[in-house]
Specification:
It contains 14 helices and 16 strands. With 448 residues, the protein is an alpha/beta fold. The protein folds into 2 domains: 137 residues, Aspartate Aminotransferase, domain 1 (Alpha-Beta Complex), CATH 3.90.1150.10; 275 residues, Aspartate Aminotransferase, domain 2 (3-Layer(aba) Sandwich), CATH 3.40.640. Helix 4 crosses helix 11. It is globular. It binds 4'-deoxy-4'-aminopyridoxal-5'-phosphate (PMP). The site of 4'-deoxy-4'-aminopyridoxal-5'-phosphate (PMP) has 14 residues, from helix 5. 4'-deoxy-4'-aminopyridoxal-5'-phosphate binds next to helix 5.
Amino acid sequence: MNNADLIQRDLAAIWHPCSQMKDHEWLPMTPIKRGEGVWLEDFDGNRYIDAISSWWVNIFGHANPRINAALRQQMEDLEHVILSGFTHYSAIELAERLIKLTPEGLNRCFYADNGSSAVEVALKMSFHYWYNTGQNKKKRFINLSNSYHGETLGALAMGDVALYKEIYAELLLEPITVASPDCFYRDEGESEEAYSRRMFVQMEQTLEQHADEVCAVIIEPLIQCAGNMRMYHPVYLELLREACDRHNVHLIADEVAVGFGRTGTLFACEQADITPDFMCLSKGLTGGYLPLSVTMTTDKIYDAFYDDYNTLKAFLHSHSYTGNALACRAALATLDIFEQDNVIESNRHLARHMQQATTHFAEHPNVAEVRQTGMVLAIEMVKDKKSREPFPWQERRGLTVYRHALKHQALLRPLGNVIYFMPPYVISTDEIDHLAEVAWQGIQLACE
Ligand code: PMP
């Protein structure tokens, strides 16, 4: 088997996600044979550093021996069992550990099998909570501009990235959209904190005006990842928690992308010292091994559904693979690694190295900003540095960086004109240096 054979077979049978399939007439697919640590190897023996953690899921490397061993053991005992009326050890142990690790007060875990579903669960639970408690007017949600919460219709509606959403507009719920605190747009000399506070005024006004009809505010804490890795200050979360309480509106923290150490703390909400009413987790939850998600919530919410069967207050949402045993066991092994290896601390060192390896990018004539929150570093490539005018999207400059990187042992997959590093936490400083070098050359090439 070689790359060419597999590409041919692939293109005859598979419809890939987030792809214009016609691109593959000239843009080769990369069939991966094996992975080890941060490295991926294709069928022709080429190697690539997985700088984007395979869509932000992988945190402790491919083929991690500890996760592999845990999965082998789980497989011997139980691969999966229905989670309605039945349960299993790994699901119980995982829920207990997540309750201990997440912000105080999140005491209930509802499992599903991907990030979008975790968001759907939070939306439905929030709406249903208000219904069960007799507040039937609450039917809407508030989201932020430039947000992303997944691709199923409910989650898609809560996002605001036109590329994914616009075409389906007529099928979607209509949230009330408040301008994002995205600090890329702060004034010169204005601090991120000051800008995030300033932008909160709009949220406060919207809550004041609409609280009676609103179930929840949904946000991605600290980083709007799919929205080009735009970042904001934790003070926004602090203010939002306080305002949601005051206006009797739930807060949904979608930590699908930022959970499990990405922002420098185990969960992004920790940086604002807040407990959301719902917290959605997925991606890094299983170390990037298997699809699993969890929507965590409080006793107060749970209790509003807990009643005699005939009251019909139960939350009946279900997915076949809810709480899959293999996925839960991979998640437990992932949490073991966090516990045993002092990961958050060693990530600080890696994050500092990413910053040092890219300081010179800020001087590049086509770089408007280099921004970083923990283990996410993003480089905003623009046509004009001074006015920050972007390159027209049709020029697909980011794709030039992607193609250059593939030729130089790196999987970098820019979001439009934003090049970013979001690597597994087992990356070495030499590998970070290599990524920085490849990204620099790629930007040079893309801006010619
Ligand atoms: N929420 C956020 C913040 C995400 O970044 C994503 C995925 N990129 C999702 C939800 C959806 O997760 P999934 O792709 O597993 O459905």
